[in-house]
Amino acid sequence: MPIKIPDKMPAREILEREQIFVMPEDRAFHQDIRPFKILILNLMPTKETTEAQILRLLGNTPLQVEAVFLRIKTYQPKNTSPAHMEAFYQTFDDVRGSFFDGMVVTGAPLEHLSFEEVTYWREFQTIMDWTLEHVTSTLYICWGAQAGLYHHYGIPKRPLPQKLFGVFAHRILKPVNLVHGFDDEFYAPHSRYAEVRTEDILAKPSLEIIADSEEAGVYLVTSKDGRHVFVSGHSEYDRRTLQTEYLRDMAKGLDMALPRHYFPHDNPEQRPIMRWRSHAHILFANWLNYYVYQETPYDIDRGILSVKTLSHHHD
Asked: Is 236 annotated in the active site?
């Protein structure tokens, strides 16, 4: 089924080249079907790249998805034009009175700062609180996952001695619906300077660790009611995203090690091996199906209180 995004959004051309069905706004309007409304808070610096990455995964499911992009009102991105942000993004004031089936919160290159030092932290906290009454399930990625665990559960992020950078093998610890169809061993990219620790999560009875990695640590965490899903890595990354980050940091004069388990024979001249594409698609499809579609009310505008009641009943 198609994903509905604004007709002139640059990501449309990328997705259409990949034969992902992107529906024009006028055609979607005339279909007698309720699309699933997914709000995407894009905190990554290269907005257009991240738009395509997230939309690619949301668009590869049997559900019709309407994507709405959200920006932080109190912060002006440096790498994306104001015209692009004005054309394709809404502020929290624009969506405050609406309800959404799901929400995706991306990562952000802010791990060297404490959460309280982030210029838009207060606005972000307001949005996270708002999701509890207005979003069926929220998927938090990388720094977004660290921020969500800290805000909702008081779990700290802890600095790593060096950047965790590369593609790592993971294992399933708890076979819940989120990992239905995963292989026993699966791969995902990581690019971060901080972590959340197993013992901190296990101290919270309402949270479960679903998957981890011997090298990369905790990977998938969910609240037991499915309202919060936390992903410590970047399953949405393209083949060359880690390469781009590596070359960017080298150009800045940073002492960067090669991303691990990424380039064949650790040779940055060779084409990176992509080993996480199928995992990424299954992860997003499972989240949309089991944590959004199976739980959300048909009339989303009536709110999600019934969902909360249903979820607690499942516990």
From this structure: yes
84 is catalytic: no
| Cβ within 8 Å of residue 165, ≥6 positions away | 190, 191, 242, 245, 246, 256, 257, 259, 260
Q: pLDDT per residue over 153-163, tens digit each?
A: 999 999 999 99
Give the range of the structural domain holding residue 29, as residue numbers without chain letter: 3-159+194-237+277-309
Q: In this structure, what CATH number is given to the domain that contains residue 128?
A: 3.40.50.880
Q: Which residues contact 251 (CB under 8 A, 6 or more apart)?
A: none
> Catalytic pick from 111, 142, 152, 228?
142
| Annotation marks residue 265 as catalytic | no
In a domain, 188, yes or no: no
For the chain, what is the domain count? 1
pLDDT score for 298? 57
- Its sign, for the CA torsion 49, 50, 53, 54, is negative
On whether residue 315 sits in a domain, the answer given is no
Q: Which of 236, 245, 279, 295 is catalytic?
A: 236
Mean pLDDT by 10 residues, the chain (315 residues): 71 72 54 78 95 93 88 89 94 96 96 94 98 96 98 97 96 97 97 97 98 98 97 98 94 91 96 97 95 75 49 35
Residue 175 domain flag: no
Instruction: Check 152, 228, 234, 279 and give the catalytic one.
Output: 234
Give the chain's end-to-end CA distance (angstroms, integer): 32
Residue 155 lies in a domain: yes
Sign (positive or negative) of CA dihedral 200, 296, 187, 45: negative
Apex 249 CA angle, 109 and 215, nearest 5:
70
pTM (two decimals): 0.88
